[in-house]
Amino acid sequence: MKNKATQSKAWATVQIARHPERPQFLDYVSEIFTEFDALHGDRLYGDDGAMIGGLARFDGQPGMVVGQHRGRSTREKLQHNFGMCNPEGYRKSQRLLDMAERFNLPVFTFVDTMGAYPGVGAEERGQAEAIATSLAQLSSLKVPVIATVLGEGGSGGALGIGVADRVIMLSHSIYSVISPEGCASILWKTADKAAQASEALALTADKLKALGIVEYVVDEGEGAHLQPEKVMHDLKDVLKQALNELQPMDAQERCDARYQRLMKFGSSNLGIAS
What we know:
The protein is an alpha/beta fold. The chain is 45% helix and 18% strand. Helix 4 (87-102) runs parallel beside helix 6.
C-alpha cells in the first residue's frame, strides 16, 4: 500500500507540473525581474521562440535571464514550439551567456521543457552539438549561475540551460532523463504504466534534493497555478539567498566549486530509498 501511495504521489506531481494554468517563464520574469529587455537570434541561423533571454534587473542589480517558454493558446504554443528548443535556441543562450561573462553579470536560467526538439531540421543543424557546447560553456562560466526548474525538466533539453552553481526546483516540478510515458514504453512496452515509471525515475523535487541534484525546493502548496504570487515571491527570496552565497566568491573558486558539485553526482548516492 505504501508503494502504491508513493506512486500516486509521484504521478500527481507530474500532472501538476503539466497543468495548463501553471505559471510559465515570462510570468515569473514579469514578477521577479524589472526592465527585462529580450535579445534575439543566435547570429548563425535565426531566432528560436522556445528559448527567450535578455537583460534584466534583479533586486536592482543587472543580470542575464534565459528560459524556456511554452505558450498557452494554440498560436502561442506554435510560436514557442511548445517550449522545445531548436539548436538556434541553445546557440542564442550561448551568445547571451558570453555577454553575461563579458560584463560580469549573474545568470538566471529557468527550465520548463519536455525536451529538445527532435525534428529532422534540428538534427541537421546540430542539436546534439549545440547542447554539448552549452554544457561545456555553463561548466566553466566565470559568473554566478542559478538554474530553476519551473515545470518539466526534460532530459538534455533541460540540461542545456540547467548546469549551474545552484539548482532550485518548485515542489511540483519534475526533472528527469526521460518522460514517464517514454520510460514505460521502453521498459514495459506500454505508456499505461507511466505512473509506475514516474516513481522509478525519482523525478520529484524532494527525491532529487535528497540525492544532492538540487539545493533548494520552493514549496508551492497544491500547485503554483493556485497561488502564483506567493510562489513567485518565495522563489525570489530563494534566488536572493543563492546569489548572496555565490557573489562573494571569486570566479575561480566558484568554478572549482561548480566542478566539484558536478563530479560528486553518483559518487555516494547509488540508489534512493522509496
